[in-house]
Amino acid sequence: MAGPKVCVLRAPGTNCDHETAFAFEQCGSQAESIHVFRLLEQPERLSEFQILCIPGGFSYGDDIGAGVIFGGQMRSHLAEAIGEFVQADKLVLGICNGFQVLLKSGLLPNGAASWPPEATSEREATLTWNRNGRYTAVWVKLRVESEKCVFLRGIDDIELPIAHAEGRIAVRDNAVIETWHQNDQIALTYQPRRFANAPQTALAGVGGGGDVATDEHELLAYPDNPNGSVANIAGLCDATGRVLGLMPHPERYVFATQHPQWTRRNLTGAGEGMSIFQNAVRYFE
Amino acid sequence: MLWDIEIKPAPHQPDREGRRLLGEAQSLGLNSLRDIRTAKSFLVEGDLDAAEIERAARTLLVDQVVEVFSTHALNGNTTQVTSDKGGNKLIHILFKPGVTDNVAQSTLQALQGHDLHADRVATCRRYWFNADANPDELRRFGEKVLSNAAIELIVEGPLHLDSLSIGHPYAFVLNTIPLLSMNTDELVKLSREGQLALQKDEMLAIQAYFREQGREPTDIELETIAQTWSEHCSHKTLAGRIRYREDDRETLFTNMLKETVFAATMTLREQAGADDWCVSVFRDNAGVVKFNDDFDVCMKVETHNHPSAIEPYGGANTGLGGVIRDPLGTGLGAKPVCNTDVFCFAPPTMSANELPPGVLHPKAVLSGVVAGVRDYGNRMGIPTVNGSIFFDERYLGNPLVYCGNVAMIPVGKSQKQANPGDYIVSVGGRTGRDGIHGATFSSIELTHESEEISGGSVQIGNAITEKMVLDAVLTARDLGLYSAITDCGAGGFSSAVGEMGEETGAEVWLEKAPLKYDGLSYTEIWISEAQERMILAVPPHQWDKLHQVCADEGVEATIIGQFTDTKRLVLKYDSHQVGDVSMAFLHDGRPKTVRDAVYRIPAERPLTKPTSKIGSYESDLKKILGSGNVCSKEWVIRQYDHEVQAGSVVKPLVGVNDDGPSDAAVVQPLLNSKRGLVISNGMNPKFGDLDPYWMAASAIDEAIRNCVAVGADPQCIAILDNFCWGNTDRPETLGSLVRAALACRDFAVAYRTPFISGKDSLNNEFTYIDAEGKKQTVAIPASLLISALGQIENVASAVTMDFKEPGNLIYLVGTTYDELGGSHWADIQGVIGGTVPRVRPESAMLLYRQIHELIKAGLVRSCHDLSEGGLAVSLAESAFAGGYGATCDLGTVPTEGDLDDISRLFSESNSRLILEIKPEDPQRVDEMLSNIPHAAIGVVSDKPRLTVLGLNEQIIIDQAIDDLKTAWQKPLTWE
User: Fold this and answer.
1) Has A249 been annotated as catalytic?
2) Is the preceding omega at residue A223 within 30 degrees of 0, hence cis?
3) ipTM for the complex?
4) Among all residues of chain A, which has the CA nearest to that of B17?
């Protein structure tokens, strides 16, 4: 039988929808790229799908702040349709700008539990400007922290690329990090990515460090933690493990040849990023 | 009511921008500025009360985790209250009225989407300085660092604003120009003062045409002709008649480009016969060649030099935006898959005090240009995969910004034809006063006053609008909803409609064009270079569908006229006819002048090597590694998304730490096919100072060499030319260009690499008045960029340049000659003269083919080309990229004649590469290279040092790869 139906929801300025749909299709699902204008016209269409994925890009130019306008539409006009979707046993994935949208809409970090949020309520966390103050594209190493995140089952660590300007997770109060730990909501953290014979790099440390480190979560320097994210967090999920947002791009590592060092490591076949999409599709088998 | 929503970093967040600006102030020596704090502000006008403004801030505009805000009502008569009460000095920076403000536009729409009834929004930046800051220093800082006078204005102290309304209703007045009675001087004056950039003969031809018509021209007619005949749009110099003298020989060209660059392609296409793989060349917005059974591939490279000199961010931003529209406007529309960029700047290390008036600091130009390319490419979702930066003091005041785009087009979609009866449809952005006179401006030499008089030529892009247009156009293409498409670039509607209707005729209804604001005259609408617009020819029965496809993506599509069969260009505004010119006069009426071009082959001067240096090359090597052209560009590259669309195979940075310099990019453009594109470039203005012929030949060789190094098939490479030169009214300047074009012809044929597209930008000179009151002119060096579009059968056979395993052998393939002329070694030594590298195409082609066979056979673990800095630099780069050392013996290097250590290390002879071969493979490799000069010159070692043995068997280089890498990375590691 055909796999689950995936809604790859795009807005003006979304630009990773094509390869994200491709990754889902490679895993045996049926992915459809839907413009948010269509969903605004007919919000009930969302119920046709089992997986909602908001891909990367610059929705509405990120002109007010990354994901703010798209997130605002989710929280207002689409609130009911999204609410029904997350109440059901379905999956939501936000990649890069999609993560920004999920966080700014209020669907993350707490998923259905706090949906829909009050329009003017104050968020506990945000994704804001990288420590180095500029857009940065670099590969990172990630460790899977969450045991219940559906998308990350069976993965211990993974290398993926990031490419963003506003990827630093900042919190209003550090105490929330402990809550996330307790609820198993910290999905992915940045890890040191060093190589035995790598010469030092003059760029290491530039833009790294930060002033919101907590004692038990020492911040890694750039480029390991590329944006200065608090507690080195790269991805968050809700307490059910069915809503995930992450800054790195798994859809950019579905072939071995997309890895920056495939020629050194003699990598062939599929890329590790594929497993995240496979996990999502398998959830419905 | 006008509201001000002021947003500052929250107390626990750093004011990063304030800190950065303080650093800039210190580097400018503005020592009275000791404290800088920043805020951004949204000015919102509409029927909104304080509670609604509060809601706007909380729901949309402020990120309360990291920001704090305050709101104030603005009233033009009262003193503005801001959150700051410390008596500090306050400066506001606002966009000038009418300048595109993308953030404001998005904010307005978002507010309206949340039932907040805003009518207008503007953004503003706000800065506070310590109260005792020196007013003169403050003003200088405001002008030099905080703002750009071309697009922004500075308000010191509180804002006295009560409305954001701009524009006023337009009252139609037909303007005619009394041309018929003018004498020659008056005609020339009219051309200059009206920024028409037309020559005397051209003005006379226009006068004759209208005398024949028995009437005076209207302003719009004159503007249309000026734009069509501009250098930028017609390439009248290079595609014109040229009398070229080289020593005692004289050649007369009737169309120089056609007889050189284009002729090479024609020759190759004839030779190829049935195997001809060119699809559409030199006729459309981009050149198209075959890729696979389903898709062809096209490429275009453009320059945007003059706008980038005035406003680096906007200039580069719209430069990239413009070149992306070229493939989109090629055939029936191609889908962009990657970008390239090549920049030429003055050294960023120049002191601010050395700068002539009217010149932006090279570091500001570099930062602005990079940010402009970054923000357009990243937002469009098109990876920027390849590029270079060259530094030379002669680019001061006239930087070069080349932007390229590669796109895929389905087989059979490369031809188009607008038919009489088709609607002329404008799709995308609205029309404003942006960029009026861009086409003619780009054809004028820059002066220190350019910053002031040409500000209107600067455009600001909106990449999201262009992305939406792209999505809509490709959907419409696949539904077959239009018969032709082209982009609105320089010259706006005038150029786009004039070109599309050349064979048919067109009638345009200018009042129908959607405007950004009221008050534009019919002429302004016609020649505006507002960005992100495409012109489509739509058969009337497809109009409804096309309109729906665009509406579905939120894109505006408007009928602004109709193609006719009259072969005339008729322009109307409401019921008034404002222009009527025959297409024949517009496109062929330009007088054909013969330009003189002279080139004298200079006697070669020997290069004197400083004797004291012999035996010590470590500091030479480090100096070259740290020179602007060679050093790491990671600071730039990491700001570009080079992986979006998921086609990245060989990235710009490779190696064990992802930071070695790749020779070329490999991109897999179709996710379901392993066939790949290879993108590279070749350029070396330093060779041009010695001989532009060998400069051009070397650039072609370098572009091909880079392609081959990562695995491209050398028999399937297409190339593009971009000539950026000084003022070609000087016969010597034009002569050096013709000489370069002759090399393009000769070597394209010899290498069997067709030119498929090209572009030129002339008059790249900067004039200013120096401290003694003397007029000084700086011309750029002859700058020919060759871009290569290669192909690789299977991306999984691609190769990178980093050393892979200790114990592998290092092969040098190709002959080293005594060719230190124009080399980086000569540059750092400050010595001139010497032999410029030659190109020997027959042996080079054989070499490239065999290397390709070795790569396909899987025998090459790494491959790196030898270019700037020669063998020494390539070895160092492969070593530190791979994290391994290398030990090499210069005595084994294949050479022509007796070469000393310096030439072996640093000569920049063409057609050479180093290969890394596994210890078990030399026999097979030697067999496959049997006819080709090559040698095993060393081994990869796990000891992290580069060790080179000289001819006298002494160690002449022994350096830790860490130190070499630091020397290479340091210059462009900016905060």
Assistant:
1) yes
2) yes
3) 0.94
4) A133
